[in-house]
């Protein structure tokens, strides 16, 4: 029986003729005629007594210390080694702390801690602004303790910012005026407002006649606010006093002297 040995690419490695005829009890014998080898196995090519050897790799035999990268071929042999450097060793003599940390410099033993934040506690209930330092800490919080104070501070309760709701009288600031005309002036008191519905402040008193002259005195209850000597060219009262007209206060004009004054027009300006 012939013996045929092949490798994986089906190359014949050993081919030997066996004895003719039926197999006997003895072993066969033959002659090697050729041997093929696949890398990394190498044949010396001898046709009678070939020698098979393992091919040397490109990497020299030896010990490689601190390898960083190893390359292998298809058969699992190491073909290349990239070496690194030995790890450094030494002794720490001091630890310092940078921005945001406390506890340094440490020469023997100690504790490094996170720097305390500048602002602590709950802060105001209604916050207007927050300042943050370079480490991300809240350093300053500015605000108010009540909603009303917050709205006042931020201007959200200004009339121009309101669309619904009621503004208290104390927060209103309205400029307006009482105006009128006395066709034929008489020495008497003319009532301008018998009972003011809001507290008001008189800011100016003006009077002028179409003909003749008189004296017009503006009264806040019994107190004199301003006086105008009324003529055809007169104008504002030179000064204003007792200007605060209270709620339900009486505002009037008294004519104290009269020289045929007619068409006396007047204006009492105020804010509330």
What does this protein structure show overall?
The chain has one helix and 17 strands. It has one helix at 147-154; strands at 3-6, 12-16, 41-43, 52-54, 67-72, 78-83, 101-102, 113-114, 126-132, 138-144, 175-184, 189-193, 200-208, 211-220, 223-230, 244-245, 251-271. Strands 11, 12, 13, 14, 15, 16 and 17 form a seven-stranded antiparallel beta sheet that branches. A two-stranded antiparallel ribbon has the order 1-2. A hairpin with an 8-residue loop joins strand 3 and strand 4 (52-54). It is rod-shaped, with a radius of gyration of 57 Å.
- Mean pLDDT, rounded to whole units? 81
The number of strands is: 17
> Any low-confidence stretches, pLDDT <50, length ≥5?
1-16
Q: Give, in order, the helices and strands.
A: EEEEEEEEEEHEEEEEEE
Q: What CATH first level of the domain at 175-271 would be assigned?
A: Mainly Beta
Q: What's the shape?
A: rod-shaped
Stated plainly, the CATH topology of the domain at 175-271 is called Jelly Rolls
Distance between the termini: 131 Å
Class from helix and strand fractions? mainly beta
The second-level CATH architecture of the domain at 175-271 is: Sandwich
Sheet of most strands: 7 strands, antiparallel
* Beta-strand fraction estimate: 35-45%
Radius of gyration: 57 Å
Helix percentage range: under 10%
Number of helices: 1
Can you tag this structure with a few keywords?
272 residues; Jelly Rolls; 7-stranded antiparallel beta sheet; 1 helix; 17 strands; 3% helix; rod-shaped
């Amino acid at each position: 029986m012939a013996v045929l040995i092949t490798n994986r690419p089906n190359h014949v490695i050993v081919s030997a003729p066996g004895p003719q005829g039926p197999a006997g009890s003895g072993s066969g014998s033959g002659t090697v005629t050729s041997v093929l080898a696949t890398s990394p196995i190498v044949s010396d090519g001898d046709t009678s007594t070939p020698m098979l050897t393992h091919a040397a790799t490109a990497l020299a035999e030896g010990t490689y210390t601190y390898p960083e990268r190893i390359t292998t071929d298809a058969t699992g042999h190491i073909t290349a080694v990239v070496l690194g450097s030995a790890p450094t060793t030494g002794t720490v003599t001091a630890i310092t702390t940078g921005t945001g940390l406390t506890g340094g410099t440490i020469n023997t033993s100690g504790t490094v801690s996170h720097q305390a934040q500048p602002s602590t506690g709950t802060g105001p209930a209604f916050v207007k602004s927050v300042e943050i330092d370079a480490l991300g800490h809240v350093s300053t919080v500015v605000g108010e303790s009540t909603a009303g104070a917050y709205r006042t501070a931020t201007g959200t309760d200004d009339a121009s910012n309101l669309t619904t709701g009621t503004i208290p009288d104390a927060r209103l600031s309205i400029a307006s005026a009482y105006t009128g005309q006395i066709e034929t002036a008489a020495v008497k008191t003319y009532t301008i407002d018998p009972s003011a519905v809001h507290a008001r402040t008189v800011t100016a008193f003006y009077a002028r006649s179409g003909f003749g002259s008189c004296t017009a005195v503006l009264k806040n209850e019994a107190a004199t606010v301003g006086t105008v000597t009324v003529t055809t060219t007169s104008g504002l009262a030179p000064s204003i006093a007792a200007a605060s007209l209270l709620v339900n206060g009486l505002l009037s004009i008294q004519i104290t002297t009269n020289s045929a004054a007619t068409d006396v027009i007047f204006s009492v300006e105020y804010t509330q």
